[in-house]
Amino acid sequence: MAQSLSKLTREDIVARLTDVVPAERVVTDAEQLKHASVDRFKKYQSVHDIFDGPLPAAIVNARSTEEIAKVLAFANEHQINVVARTGRTGTEGGLETAVEDTLVLDGSGLDEIIKIDAENMQATVQCGVPLQVLEDALRAQGLTTGHSPQSKPLAQYGGLVSTRSIGQFSTLYGAIEDMVVGLEAVFPDGTVTRIKNVPRRAAGPDIRHIVIGNEGALCYITEVTVKIFKYQPENNEFHGFLVDDIATGIKVIREVVTNGFKPSVVRVYSPEDARQHFAHFYDGKVVVVFVAEGPQGIVRATSEEIERVIGRYPHDKVDPKLIENWFDNLNWGVDKIEAEKQVMLEQAELGYTTEVSVDWSRTVELYENVIRRIRTEFPAADDLVMLGAHSSHSYQTGTNLYFVYDYKINCDPRDEINKYHIPLNAIIVEEALKAGGSMVHHHGIGKYRAPWTTQEHGSAYPILAKLKETFDPNGIMNKGTIFPTDA
């Protein structure tokens, strides 16, 4: 926990805020402040009503870019830490309040779909628009965002862009950074910046990427324009296969992708991870999943390539309907989160994930090294009830590994995060960096991977540090996120 640098007391901050925004926008309810102090990295502690970090001074429910600008300028003048949030689906501690008397600036109220431009194939939304809401509006017109993370029913655009999110259909449509055309953001001094919507330009470095992925550590994203695509679900073709080992699964997906084909879904599940998704058919083997979508001709060509490649390896075919049914129930909404809470309370068991990326040539090595280290070095390995991984996003040069670990909790709820989650997360991050990969693929750095940020970027870290120094010289934006506190 860090002490506030502001000379204002907690009471002063709240009182003065009502001169900046209407009083009804300023929330000081104790229960809401507790839950605003954490995100889903501390889901086990929060379900047990444990909130050991500093509680925010207030939550500000902004309703416009102008209000965002006024609150940030006020906070900057008085050196008050600010945590930006929208949909609250963060998983890496990026929404935690690590400084006393923080302001949590919530943009969920900026929820207007400003324009759907079907001619230029783009949509403009405010930061608080839920992804599902935009997707539903587009599908009514035969269009789609192409973006479908598991948090789709809950996530909002400000958070999606600020964490460089990715969706289940990324091999075809790309990740959020590939979809963003232009945006609006507010910097700590209250300056509003607009990056215009153009198909491409060669006018210097791509300044969108100062904003995309900044996790509220540099600025506040208030508006986004994204690409949209034709929606043709009637052409979708689903494929599932069982193979003997991870190495074979990786070879199969690598060949399909590097041959130039782009199935929307490209996945490989280790047997342990497959058991929790495909218990009714996985048969103790590795599961390989593809979905081909788009125009009918492209779908057919993609499916033929998938069948050609898998035919070169021993395999068993899975009924495509089983794969389709699985995808129809993959996303997480309020219902699944509530069910997870019940499991945590009744069974003292939960699961987490850590996602990294690596070159093709070291994917299997990274998988094996992580599993070996956890099994042999993690002191509480006997409490693990599941340890596995899957590859779910692939590229010409490599893929990601999404490590999944479930465990029984044999300690006081307050100690869970230090006994289990943090050391498991650390092993995976360390091995990814040793393999020359990235310590984080799409959930963002947050506060729990920030200790490795300098190692992640190496000699390029000063470029990143200079952005913080330039755009947030008073250090008010989400202290401890992305930028290690001792750097």
Give the topology, please:
Elements: H1 10-20, E1 26-27, H2 30-36, H3 43-47, E2 58-61, H4 65-77, E3 82-85, E4 103-106, E5 113-117, E6 122-126, H5 131-139, E7 143-144, H6 157-162, H7 170-173, H8 176-179, E8 180-186, E9 192-195, H9 208-211, E10 220-227, E11 229-230, E12 237-243, H10 246-258, E13 265-269, H11 271-278, E14 286-292, H12 296-310, E15 316-318, H13 320-328, H14 334-347, E16 349-359, H15 363-377, E17 384-391, E18 398-408, H16 416-434, H17 453-457, H18 461-471
Parallel strand pairs: 2-4, 3-4
Antiparallel strand pairs: 1-2, 5-6, 6-10, 7-11, 8-9, 8-10, 12-14, 12-15, 13-14, 13-17, 16-18, 17-18
Describe the structure.
The protein is an alpha+beta fold and 487 residues long. Helices cover 35% and strands 20% of the residues. The strands form four sheets. The chain has a seven-stranded antiparallel beta sheet with strand order 15-12-14-13-17-18-16, with helices on both faces. Strands 5-6-10-8-9 form a five-stranded antiparallel beta sheet. It starts with 9 loop residues before the first helix and ends in a 16-residue tail after the last helix. The model has no long low-confidence stretch (mean pLDDT 95).
Sheet bearing the most strands, described?
7 strands, antiparallel
Unreliable residue stretches: none
Percent of residues in helices comes to: 25-40%
Rg on CA atoms, Å: 22 Å
Shape: globular
Structural class comes to alpha+beta
Strand order of the largest sheet: 15-12-14-13-17-18-16
Summarize model confidence as the mean pLDDT: 95
Distance between the termini: 16 Å
If helices are DSSP runs of H or I spanning 4 or more residues, what is the number of helices?
Answer: 18
Number of strands: 18
The portion of residues forming beta strands comes to 15-25%
